[in-house]
Amino acid sequence: MQTAENKTMNRFNSVFGEIDAVYHEASLKLGLSDSVSKILYTICNFGDNCPLHTVCLQTGLSKQTVNSSVRLLEKQGYVYLLSAGKKTKDIFLTEQGKAYSAATAQKILWIENEILSEWTQEEVDFYFSLTKRFLMQLKAKVSKL
Question: Does the pLDDT at position 48 exceed 70?
Answer without folding.
Answer: yes
